[in-house]
Amino acid sequence: xxxxSKDKRDIYYRLAKEEGWxxxxxxxxxxxxxxxxxxxGVNRAVDLCAAPGSWSQVLSRKLRSVDDAEVKIVAxxxxxxxxxxxxxxIQGDITKISTAEEIIRHFEGQPADLxxxxxxxxxxxxxDVDEYIQAQxxxxxxxxxxxxxxxxxxxxxxxxKIFFSGVTCAKPRSSRNSSIEAFVVxxxxxxxxxxxxxxxxxxxxxxxxxxxxxLEGPNRVIVPFLxxxxxxxxxxxxxxxxxxDDSKEYQYTPPSQPPIQPPYQxxxxxxxxxLLSKEDAPSASSSQNRDTAESS
Length: 296
Fold this sequence. Notes:
disordered C terminus, alpha/beta, cytoplasm, Rossmann fold, four-stranded mixed sheet, 31% helix, Putative tRNA (cytidine(32)/guanosine(34)-2'-O)-methyltransferase, 8 strands, globular, four-stranded parallel sheet, 9 helices
């Protein structure tokens, strides 16, 4: 598939390149902010599962000014990420206590005003398993994260309502309609009296039965679903012509930031050397060294 055909297929992919965003997902956070005013009064923000950094980019542009030293932004991911102005990066596991303690140190013991996360576990294809793992990850990093909407999502909402007075399921305009992806926006953190945060025990206790979602009356939690973004915005599932503006000729724009040490890097190296299907294929590092030696 050529470059121009990919640009034509995904309007938000193209706009992200033209506006200098690292990924099209930047528009999801921007549209959520338009609906919920997420950035109002925020001085300390955390971006979990941050790589390649499009949401950290949004936080940096929206929260920081030239001389604003009070704003602190921390980005966390297992993968390396190119630097961003005003963003402190932590390469670590967001489900570990040591990572949480490091974030707290950067905030000098103060709580975060905003936590965002566009992360998801590697999917297995078994939807019930994927939904459960995603729910456990969300409960570990609440209050705002991507979810998979499934039949047991009511249980997740019930757990979040314990800690937040406002819980909304939101679908940005830039999120494809064909995807079951949505975002949980949790506002007004009000934990139960005497609650001590503990990352060792998940909130989902495995004790619910198959009739949980059939509860009625006040025992059932109904979370509002909100479509974010004006109807005049671009449709993420529609194909648009490359020439959007008649007065301006279309020119290809490369991605703002290519991946750094992507997990598929070894496979790319093996494929480049025609070793991908061989049992005795060397590691990516040795293939890279060989490439360097041949080029020299």
